[in-house]
Every structure is written in C-alpha cells, then in structure tokens.
Amino acid sequence: MFRRTNGIWAIVIIAVLVAAAAMVGTAAAQKATPRPQNALVIGEDQVRQLLLLMDTDKRGKISKQEFMGFMEAEFERLDQDKTGELDVKVLTQSNLHARSFVGK
Fold first, then answer.
1. Cβ atoms within 10 Å, residue 41
2. Are residues 98 and 46 in contact, defined by beta-carbon separation less than 8 angstroms?
C-alpha cells in the first residue's frame, strides 16, 4: 500500500511540475511576441525622418501636395522601365525605408 501511495504522489508531483513548466513557457512566449502597438513605436523614428523629407516648406506638417509630390517622384524612381505601373516584384525589391531617402 505504501508503495502505491508513493507512486501516486510521484505522478501527481510530476504532473504539477509539467503543468507549471507549460505555464511558464506559455507566459514567456506571449511576452516575446511583439504587440501591434510596439511595432508602431519601432517605426516612429523612420516615419519622422520620412516626414521631414516630405515637408518641403518646413512647417512641421506635410500637405497633400507635398505628400503626393514625394510619392510621384518615388513612383518615377521605381518605374525604371517607364510603363507607368509597378508590380509586386518591383515593390518587394525596392527596399523602401525612410533611411534610403536620407541625403536626397
């Protein structure tokens, strides 16, 4: 009887340890996954650099005309074969980042 009780307790202890390890692992995985709001904060510096480049009148804001002018110039730069169209291949190979515009 004593052996059977010890065996049951050993199984219970092992089950509790496995459950605790699973909870810790799940908590660590959730903590490591970036939340959407964190992803926005990461790109904020790049967005600020890009806005500074678009802000031709240096008011600290960009108008629709400034935005569209910048985007039109970028479209022309990407449309190397001058078809007036961009496809997925061109856009994925373009490396569009704010830092790529610095110094233009």
1. 10
2. yes
**pTM strictly above 0.90:** no
57 CB-near residues (< 8 Å, 6+ apart): 63, 66
Domain ranges of the chain: 2-33, 40-100
Residues 41 and 44: their CA atoms lie apart, in Å, by 5
Q: What is the DSSP string of 17-52?
A: HHHHHHHHHHHHHHHHSPPHHHHHHHTHHHHHHHHH
The confidence band for 39, taking pLDDT boundaries of 50, 70 and 90, is: low
pLDDT in tens, 64-89: 999 999 989 988 988 888 999 888 88
